[in-house]
Amino acid sequence: MKKDLWEDLERSLEKIIPYYNVMNKVMSLGNEEFLRERMMDYVPENIDVYGDIGTGPGNISLKIVSERNVDEPFLIDPSMEMLKNNKSGGEKVCAIMEELPFKDETFDLVTCGFSFRDSYSHEDAAKEISRVMKKNGKLIILDIGKPDSKLLFFIYSIYIFFIPLLASMIITKFKHIHEYFTLFYTYVFYPPHGEILKMFEKNGMRYEHGIKKLGGALFLDIFKKQG
Questions:
Q1: Is the dihedral of CA 200, 57, 181, 163 positive or negative?
Q2: What element of type H or E holds 108?
Q3: What confidence tens digit (pLDDT) does each residue in 146-163 have?
Q4: 3-state secondary structure (DSSP) of residue 223
Q5: Contacts of 61 (CB under 8 A, 6+ apart)
Q6: Of the residues 44, 151, 182, 209, which has the maximum number of CB atoms within 10 A of its CB?
Q7: Which helix (H) or strand (E) holds 61?
Q8: Most distant CA pair in the chain: distance in Å?
Q9: 162-195 pLDDT tens trace
């Protein structure tokens, strides 16, 4: 994604903060909560250092911090406005995922919830996220994806195009049509799921488990840093 489009996306996300959670539920056809629950099956009971990268309002970090023993939680996002609205508890760090201000092998657990697709360079983001993972550390990504079936991909692409526009009309009463439309071009620039796996695997992450919903239009991926 070009930097100017990425900057437009970040400004847009800040403007729709009050509607952010509703939009994720709509775009995932209600499957987001189900996968967040399944995610907890792979989260250790005790975590030394945890980073939620692209934390946004903290849907995932709030759940993990409240249900697990976490010594040091870090909430990482490029938007100060998002961080101000995050109530998870932990140290807030304003940073992009392509340039994380942490030393090598910092985190035992990293999560990215509906945020990896928002990076302007997915390859650089995968490299940086892998760099800050401790050996044998766990990475969990929850995001929308591109279905494997060409027919499902076509149908879901239409859905992703129209639903944000429709939602902006209904939820915000025509106030944020452009802001919601920026969500569509994150989908346009998002790599296919297989390419995402390769990006992490070439940076020392081993793909352990995955759950797909809606034919791959929504996925939960579990990685482990090779020791």
A1: positive
A2: strand 107-113
A3: 887 788 888 888 877 777
A4: strand
A5: 50, 52, 55, 73, 75, 86, 88, 90, 111
A6: 182
A7: helix 59-67
A8: 51
A9: 776 776 676 666 676 677 677 777 888 899 899 9
